[in-house]
TrEMBL record:
Keywords: FAD, Flavoprotein. This is NAD(P)/FAD-dependent oxidoreductase. It comes from Tissierella carlieri. PANTHER family: OS12G0638800 PROTEIN. The lineage of its organism: Bacteria, Bacillati, Bacillota, Tissierellia, Tissierellales. Residues 189-350 form the RsdA/BaiN/AoA(So)-like insert domain.
């Protein structure tokens, strides 16, 4: 006799869990709080949907125990994910950095094929269904906010975390899990823009450059990344910053002072740049410092940097001291800022922290506390780097949960 499996949440993990469970003989109901499934999926990869990454390793994942993710990521791996979606009609486009997109470069393509599959597999989908409580006796009873109830043999919670609450991920999943006896670690935004302490942010707003950024705690480099970096009115953004944000916030949450060091010129060492500037300024010694830096860095960086160093912009290069040139070479290769926080959940791409993975069977995604309950995706204390790793975790954990819920 087939198991009746109720899936709470119709995002990436929930849809994958539904299709996996259906394939293995389950009778499936998806309860989705929005008016349609996959709302967050449409926003991924800037609307292009970076759905996995060929260069995946366990080192791309974070949490109190990242190794927890290994089993699911191995059992439903990147190749299997690409094959799965290719059968649904998604031709992969693979970039040099391993990122995989649909060849259409449209997130809507991913959602369209998943929705088609859910429909043709006759999976029952109930939208505008916000779950307020889950009760377990012999079977599970799901109670909605509007008092409708559903009964099932197994339940998979796939509500997502706290990131992008406009998509429906408002943390309700954590409340449901806590009520069932699970513990939840501190949650904070992951893959998010950082707020900096600086008096120059207004004038730097919108300045973009190719550089290197590093997170420092107690003067020690913790993590760095390179790529397009963007100054904003509140701080700093860009792909390297998103990659560093989890680490920065983790240390801030521990009460540590966190420093971001940015290399605007990263192709020369500080000493090489110092020598270069000495020669450059000697060659144009009648120019002012402000004019002398044009063509070297973004024009809008010049005044804030000179103010930071207390160098008069109208000073002629011939009167610039060696000490002042050294300070210029220092700030251009390593400009220091204090990190004071991040943008809100509405700007975050993923949730860091979540349901304690010690309470979940890594091979099945089943709760060790409540038999027949499965918890997947972003709800768990597992989050990935930027680049398709979080969606791969959603596919893998959802697939494993659906398979085991239907099988057991």
């Amino acid at each position: 006799m087939s198991k009746r499996i109720i899936i709470i949440g119709g995002g990436a993990a929930g849809m994958m869990a539904a299709l996996s469970a259906k394939k293995n003989g389950g009778e499936i109901i998806i309860l989705e709080r929005n008016d349609r499934v996959g709302k967050k999926l449409l926003a991924t990869g800037n609307g292009r949907c970076n759905y996995t990454n060929r260069n995946l390793s366990i080192n791309n994942y974070h949490g109190n125990n990242p190794e927890f993710a290994y089993s699911a990521l191995s059992e439903f791996n990147v190749e299997m994910t690409m094959e799965f979606f290719e059968r649904l009609g998604i031709t992969p486009a693979i970039e040099d950095n391993g990122k995989v997109f649909p060849l259409s470069f449209q997130s809507s393509s991913m959602l369209d094929v998943l929705r088609y599959e859910i429909e043709t597999q006759e999976i029952e989908l109930i939208t505008e269904a916000q779950v307020s409580e889950i009760k377990k006796r012999k079977k599970f009873t799901i109670i909605l906010k509007d008092k409708r109830t559903f009964e099932g043999d197994k339940v998979i919670i796939a509500t997502g975390g706290m990131a992008l609450p406009s998509s429906g991920s408002d943390g309700n999943g954590y409340t449901l899990c806590k009520k069932l006896g699970h513990t939840v670690t501190d949650v904070f935004p992951g893959l998010v823009q950082l707020k900096l302490e600086s008096g120059f942010l207004k004038s730097l707003d919108g300045v973009k450059f190719l550089g290197v950024a590093g997170i420092y705690v107690d003067n020690k480099l913790i993590l760095e990344d390179s790529g397009d970096i963007l100054f904003t009115s509140y701080g700093i953004s860009g792909p390297p910053i998103l990659q560093l944000s989890r680490t920065a916030l983790e240390y801030i949450n521990k009460g540590k002072s966190v420093e971001l060091r940015v290399s605007i010129i990263h192709t020369r060492s500080q000493e090489e740049l110092f020598q270069y500037l000495v020669n450059r300024f000697n060659f144009n010694d009648k120019k002012t410092v402000e004019i002398g830096l044009i063509g070297l860095i973004n024009k809008r960086l010049i005044i804030p940097i000179l103010k930071e160093l207390n160098i008069d912009k109208n000073k002629n290069l011939e009167f610039l001291s060696k000490d002042e040139i050294r300070k210029l070479s220092q700030i251009l290769t390593s400009w220091h800022f204090k990190v004071i926080g991040s943008q809100s959940w509405g700007n975050a791409q993923v949730t860091a922290g979540g349901v304690n993975t010690d309470e979940i069977d890594s091979k099945t995604m089943e709760s060790k506390i409540v038999e027949g309950l499965y918890i997947v995706g972003e709800l768990l204390d597992i989050d990935g780097d930027c680049g398709g790793f979080n969606l791969q975790w959603a596919w893998s954990s959802g697939y494993i949960a659906g398979l085991n819920a239907a099988k057991n």
